[in-house]
Amino acid sequence: MRLLAVHPSSLMYTKVFLRLEPLGLELVAGAARNKGHDVQILDLQVEKHPDYWQRIEEFRPHAICFSGNYLANVPEIIDLCKETRKRLPNVFLFIGGHSISFIARDVLALSDGAINCVLKGEGDATVGLLLEAWEQGKDLTTVPGVVTMDGDGPPPIFIESLDEVRPARDLLRHRRKYFIGTLDPAASIEFARGCPWDCTFCSAWTFYGRSYRTASAKVIGEELQEIKEPGIFIVDDVAFVHAEHGMAIADEIKRRNIQKEYYLETRADVLMRNKEVFAVWKEIGLSYIFIGLEAVDAEGLKRFRKRVSMDRNFEALEYARSLDLIVAINLIADPSWDRERFEVIRQWCLEIPDIVNISVTTPYPGTEIWESESRKLTTRDYRLFDIQHAVMPTTLPLREFYEELVKTQQILNNKHLGWSAIKDTLGIALRLALRGQTNFLTMIWKFNSVFNPDLQMADHAQKPEYEMPLKPQGTDQQVDRKTLYVHGPAGRKSRKIDDDTEKFVDETRMSTVD
């Protein structure tokens, strides 16, 4: 069976600062290929819609799947599925991915019958079963995680081992187009899957049922050795939760003498608990560390259910700097911010040496704030759910909110990539350009063409073609967490961490419910 796996186009933030290889889609493609199917991958982040139609004409796929990891891509996916159905009436069309898993039936309804089914949960665990069922004419609702307009299959299942499937990297064209910051080009890799914490704004834990599973150090070492790109983005939601696992991978890298430069994301409390792990990783190539600070005051941290004191956060930043790491942090701008709050944030960000990213509070299906946030949505347009648009009422007039937001982002961008910082960045950009890598160089000059209040207001003015389901009437009260999960929670046995780490996780999350 011929399967074409498709990743949708770039979103606002990824048009400038990064472009990551579609690792999840590569894993699905790898799993399908392991079952004997002929698979191709097309990534619309680096190719265009005409390339999609040309590939279909050349490959003539029996099945086409789309990666639906981001809500803002939903309109593009649905439009492509509808047009594909017109041109190929008998093709098997299905969607999987993180965000789609929480809104499966709504997306099916919007497709007007163009999409055969949604595959919820881990696609690499069940794509083989789904293709077999379709090929043999079986009832699709016998497949775990399947949702059709006629019914649902059994609950999604996990892949038995993260060592079982390797990403089909060889199927991805234009590999030199992927980068993050100065890691240009960069490949992506997964060391662990899931997150044992339960932050209110995040759906990683609700997707995976608060599980945490790891790939073996040996398999990771083999994969790193095969990757040609010099830069590596570690996609784990929280890197090195389990210190022994981080050390084991480091030992494997040293043994194989692998020379790479790494970018990872982690929590401040994990960094401070496992200092020795991050110190060792600095020795073997760790360059960037992204810490999800989210807020710069205790009230903000409480809202996002991050039981980390501000003192602890600042201590973590200092430790990361002491390792001579490039530190990036994320802050979440709430629609309630006024001019004074934006100015306070700008001044704070300018006083620290770190790279600061500003996103906007956005309630997503699958997160607790989707259920509990009492503020009503001002829009249900899928395109605007990209953490760069305000979808809840703003204290400032909307245009002024965007002006303050973009002003803040512009100041922070200039701090690291503007003329004042050009002496530091130009040398890097030129060295990359001499190697034929211009992703980073292009990024430096692209900000103003993407981040612009006029463009954001125009996005709001555009009539929505596809709208999200009505948001529940939030009460700011405790939510029944059982209703949020894609993969049901399995408790302690689903987390591959030692008992001390399990205790640490429980002490650093706000909820005590599994």
UniProtKB/TrEMBL annotation:
InterPro entries: Aldolase_TIM, BchE-like, Cobalamin-bd, Cobalamin-bd_sf, Elp3/MiaA/NifB-like_rSAM, HpnR_B12_rSAM, Methyltransferase_Class_B, rSAM. GO terms for molecular function: methyltransferase activity. Residues 496-514 have a biased composition (Basic and acidic residues). CDD domains: Radical_SAM, radical_SAM_B12_BD. Residues 468-514 are annotated as: Disordered. Residues 181-395 form the Radical SAM core domain. GO terms for biological process: methylation. The keyword Iron-sulfur applies. NCBIfam families: HpnR_B12_rSAM. This is Hopanoid C-3 methylase HpnR. It comes from Komagataeibacter melomenusus. The gene is hpnR.
